[in-house]
């Protein structure tokens, strides 16, 4: 029997891959290019609509552990990321087109995967995985919300602008990664006077109206830069504009504030403004961000945008396999489940795909324990929580270490990470293909 996967974002693509590599036929249904949301620009699968970074690659960071767990289970998303990697210090960042192109070609050429380009407006029959993401079409979102077991919640997400490298004033910009970890970032240093002028202009700038927008409904990890500025004059200087560990080679000292730019494509012709998610009107972005030293004449390849995200109140609806409790064989995956972030979305697709494949083959569903990053995310979305909100993977949602560890928090995280990887290696023997 074929399993339908609805949506070819990161979660849907990972789910389809995990199903197919286990010998299960897949019908992957994607509305692009027939229908495009306001945030989508490419016809390719697994489009990265916000940042091009998959965040830290270090095991001391929970998302670094999550990526390593996924690598060991042969994640398509991680395969693509390493094929399309661009310099980003200790982070894993990718060339968007190369990343999405690799995934698209891999799935289109797989003999067990059939691609259908059409919009879905009704809930599919099981077995199926719904991975339509936070930008689910209005018609399908209404169909999901109409299910008796479902209640949906909304929040808002934002993308940072991208500028061309050739338009930057490199007499004012310097290369460095924080704390001397290479030179993968471009840095725009600010004096106190420049910072004060920038914050004042940011607070006075016109923002684009978004229906139903409320700042309290914005996910903290994607807070618009102007919303952060409203929390206090120095909030940006202690947040995305933090200068610590980025001394200007011309002075030998940390600036008052720093705007960082991260490479966005393999050729190094595009850079995105790190932490500059925004809903400023486009002319205002050019004017206000042009006050940043080095960006006075910046050419914007893409302005920052903001859009509505939709997610389920998953506890009580989904189990720890991302399967609907009331409808066995029907799974959800991706940000719609309440996981937040590219890697976390792909991770939920991995778990859903593995479980759906094993279910089709009459095998017992695997248990991903909370001692693993994969299991911690699955437990988070399935455990009752009256204040349920989208969550990135953190060591805080994982099973702790039972004893005090010498060497502090990082040493403890190393032990938790090694335990997790040992668990994944053992679990792999049960769930992996020959």
Order of helices and strands: EHEEHHEEHEEHEEEEHHEEHEEEHHH
**Cα distance spanning the termini:** 21 Å
The overall pLDDT, averaged over residues, is 91
Strand order within the widest beta sheet: 10-11-12-13-9-14
Largest pleated sheet = 6 strands, antiparallel
> Mind telling me the CATH class of the largest domain?
Alpha Beta
Number of H- or I-type helical stretches? 11
Q: How many beta strands in the DSSP annotation?
A: 16
| Bulk shape | globular
Beta strand %: 15-25%
Low-confidence stretches: none
The total domain count is 2
CATH superfamily of the largest domain: FAD/NAD(P)-binding domain
Q: What is the CATH topology classification name of the largest domain?
A: FAD/NAD(P)-binding domain
The radius of gyration computed from the alpha-carbon positions, rounded to a whole number of angstroms, is: 22 Å
Offer a quick outline of the entry.
The protein has 434 residues and is of the alpha/beta class. The chain is 30% helix and 16% strand.
Explain this structure to me?
This protein has 434 residues and is of the alpha/beta class. 30% of the residues lie in helices and 16% in strands. It has 11 helices and 16 strands. The strands form 4 sheets. It has a 6-stranded antiparallel beta sheet. Strands 6-2-1-7-16 form a 5-stranded parallel beta sheet, covered by helices on one side. Strand 4 and strand 5 (91-94) form a beta hairpin. The longest helix has 24 residues, at 408-431. The chain is globular, with a radius of gyration of 22 Å.
